[in-house]
Amino acid sequence: MRDVLAVLGDRVSVERQPAFQIERADSAAAIAAYRTLRTRVFVEEQGLFAGHDLDEHDEDPRTVILVARDREGTVIGGVRLYPAVDEPDLGWWIGGRLVVAPTHRRRTVAPPVLPAARTARTTAATSAGRVGAALVRAACAYAENAGVMRFEATIQVRNETMFARLGWHRIRPVTVAGTPHVLMRWHIGRIQALVDATKRDLGSLLTGLAGTPGFVGDDGVPVPGSDLVAACDAILPSMVERDPEWAGWCSVLVNVNDLAAMGAEPVGLLDALGARDRSFASRVLAGLRRASEAYGVPVLGGHTQFGVPAALSVTALGKTSHPVPGGGGRPGHAVRLTADLGGRWRPGYAGRQWDSTTSRRKPELHAMLASVGQARPAAAKDVSMAGVAGTLGMLAEASGCGAELDLARVPRPAGTSVGDWLTCFPGFAMLTADEPGTGPLAAGPAVSVDCGRLVPGHGVVLRWPDGERTEVLTGGVTGLGRA
To answer: Could you tell me which residues are beta bridge partners of residue 100?
Structure first.
């Protein structure tokens, strides 16, 4: 492109071209150039290694290499990142072997190009001023887009200031190749950002409207003086517009899950639908009708209006004489995740919505919905918009404590990243808390695994195989407080 612009005489555009760009090294030539640069710097210049600096991670097919190229296409820097443990990938990655050609160090240059989510190369500019800093930012962006939840690197002591300026945090001193280094960690705030966007303001908004005593913030609410439990959910208007049949199905799914979390058996639904015309309404209602039939829960009535923007909400009624609260947990209770791992990402919602229910038969759906009512744990929450970690934060908040989640034990579908699974809507998934040693929920095709615990304090911490703990939620999720 630069040559074309020069031929056309467009000097301004030529001058505005970034001095370098960053891309994933997918060719053998790019990888070889990166390794040659590493040898030049780490072996010949710094003397950290003898002969070469190659290790087992260079042969690991999971290792990702990002390189910086100048305007002529020459590799002038690079960095690699890779999973810290063998399969399965737990979302813990390591960055390292950051190298910049001597001729491009500590130079102020035009903004580089960083990789966008799930792409190998882009042409967007950033404000990074140096090749090394740009490579670090690119590695952080790639890791977060890959669903990584813990990203670390061992840094030469002389580079600690640069990493700190970029937002990295010092963990502890370490030694690499006989040379002092510092272990540093990049904070990934994906879970906190999700709950802040979806749940943070509920406490202040719902003052005086937050259910009945003992059931504050629950998925449904017991109707005083009866054995009825009511639940209500609205579907995002953008989702109704984009995928009306799926929106109709989900309007049933989320409501029967809410009832199931309280141990209630669903008995009927009421829907309220706004649609621009009859044709659009028929698509929404087709999905709702199909789910109603699949779950065996009748639509008792509702309201439909044409000539308005898309809107859909459903109210569900269920029955139980002993509702299970979402805030019944206590420090020391074991946390169990019961989830249906079958299915796939819903087309158009990869990484955000998992669809296991549309392929299930009625007995399977009934078994999952009945599992909490049969087990009657101390506390239960349906995993919803806040994801697994955010929903655990709500259960802990309502229980007046904090929670730890053991990532190595969290059940998840093959091929999904930890970051996506912890923050998506998972179809059918229940978090329960009860005394240690309580057996798994009998939930048909769903798997039920003890994968955490409630602890004194507040917030949610991820527990890793090496014993490290990383905080992902710093306090209460909703602000509604203890039930």
So the answer is: 77
